[in-house]
Amino acid sequence: MKKEFNHEKIKEAIRTIITELGDDPDREGLKDTPDRVARMYDEVFEGMRYTNDEIAEMFNKCFEVSNNDLVIVKDIEVFSYCEHHLALMYNMKCHVGYIPNGKVIGLSKIARICDMVAKRLQLQERICADIAYIIEKVCQTSDVIVVVEGEHSCMTARGIKSRGAKTRTSAIRGLFDTDHELRNEFYNLIKD
């Protein structure tokens, strides 16, 4: 079920943050910022309105097939926000592979699933697991692999300030967990 965000409460919170940072939320450059942020949050946190099961239902657009050949969509660009610091996770790419079990999902739906899952306060590890769960549910196959790589501003812009450091995470299910040749085939196919 779709949950709407309370714009007025978000605007009040942003005004408070601006004030506590030592600036004037009523000055020319900032007076519309609380409203802009509230509207931005509608977009960048859209995925928080839905459970994984609801996302699966939204994008359950499959076609029957008679083969079980490996399907891969790579380099799906997304961004997210780290739930620990509310910091941007950027330059993120999702790579999704699965073995059909009598049906395949439309390729654009895989990208939409990745996008919707990323539009939450997240951990990169959970992004992988959520995408894998949804693909498993929609395609009714347990043979799924998801790799996500990205940069985290909570590590590159603050703290250690390790610019260029990338994090790679994976969710490995079914045959991809037990068949190392299949897993290696996937990894080779997603290489640049």
Question: What structural keywords apply?
Answer:
192 residues, alpha+beta, GTP Cyclohydrolase I, Chain A, domain 1, GTP Cyclohydrolase I, domain 2, five-stranded mixed sheet, 8 helices, elongated
How would you portray this structure in words?
- This protein is of the alpha+beta class.
- It has 2 domains: about 40 residues, GTP cyclohydrolase I, N-terminal domain (GTP Cyclohydrolase I, Chain A, domain 1, Orthogonal Bundle), CATH 1.10.286.10; about 140 residues, 2-Layer Sandwich (GTP Cyclohydrolase I, domain 2), CATH 3.30.1130.10.
- The chain has 8 helices and 7 strands.
- The strands form 2 sheets. A 5-stranded mixed sheet has the order 5-2-3-6-7. A two-stranded antiparallel sheet has the order 1-4.
- Helix 1 crosses helix 2, helix 3 crosses helix 5 and helix 4 runs antiparallel to helix 5.
- The longest helix has 16 residues.
- The relative contact order is 0.14.
- The mean pLDDT is about 95.
Q: In summary, what is this structure?
A:
By secondary structure, the chain is an alpha+beta fold. Helices cover 42% and strands 24% of the residues. It is built from eight helices and seven strands.
